[in-house]
Amino acid sequence: MKQSMGVRLWRWTIISIVALYLLVPLYAMFDFSTKPFGFADKGRTFRAWTMIPSQPDLLAAISRSLITAAIVMALILFMIVPTAIWVHLKLPVLRRPFELLCLLPLAIPAIVIVVGIAPLYRWISINVSESPITLAGVYSMLILPYTYRSLSAALDAVDIHTLAEAATTLGASISRVIFGIIMPTIKTGIVNGSFIAIALVLGEYTISNILNFKTFQVVIAQ
């Protein structure tokens, strides 16, 4: 009983620390945004929040960032997830090389990535589009380490080989196995990876600023 109480206490301690880590910055943001403007306001004010609709540049940047996040999520769902499932299911010998490839962006500083992709994005801006939405490609690369680890943990927690064999025996095609059977089974990992993607896209500043794209964070900083 004492051990059970100790485990429970330790669990709630960890949960409380994580909750404080997540909630304190949000409270600080809310506290700062509701402080009075000069001597005209007395006490708390929501004028900073009510002014958002009157800022067309900010609204356009929010719209572009949300569209970019949606594109990145689509790339995760239709490219990264099926590839990870295929490697785990059919090519286990390539799991380590594939994992190393996905984790590679963690070892490369953002400034180095910008220097490498700047000529490519210069060509894209001239010949294709100047929209910040084109950043979806490089963002998809940046989130690979986090997305893959989330998907890999979800895949390791499920016996996907047994599921695939049972589905194949019943006549399911490989696309049906991947999209209709395995993907719903690992939806928790997919959702976690998607949240990470949204957080990165909405919070990334270095690459978009150096490439001179007006995204949400860049407009806020200006």
The shape is globular
Approximately how much beta-strand content do the residues carry?
under 5%
**What's the SSE pattern?**
HHHHHHHHHHHH
The overall pLDDT, averaged over residues, is 84
SS element count, helices: 12
Q: How many domains make up the 3D coordinates?
A: 2
Instruction: Characterize the biggest β-sheet.
Output: none
| DSSP strand tally | 0
CATH topology (fold) name of the largest domain: MetI-like fold
**Structural class of the helices, strands and pairings?**
mainly alpha
Please give the radius of gyration in angstroms.
22 Å
- Which stretches are poorly predicted, pLDDT < 50 over at least 5 residues? none
**Residue share in helices?**
over 70%
- CATH C-level name of the largest domain: Mainly Alpha
CATH architectural category of the largest domain: Orthogonal Bundle
End-to-end distance: 57 Å
Oligomer class: single chain
> Superfamily at the CATH H level of the largest domain?
MetI-like
Structural summary, described in words:
With 222 residues, this protein is mainly α. It has two domains: 1-50, no CATH class; 53-221, MetI-like (MetI-like fold), CATH 1.10.3720.10. The chain is 77% helix and 0% strand. The chain is built from twelve helices and no strands. The longest helix has 35 residues, at 56-90. The radius of gyration is 22 Å and the shape is globular. The N and C termini lie far apart (57 Å). The model has no long low-confidence stretch (mean pLDDT 84).
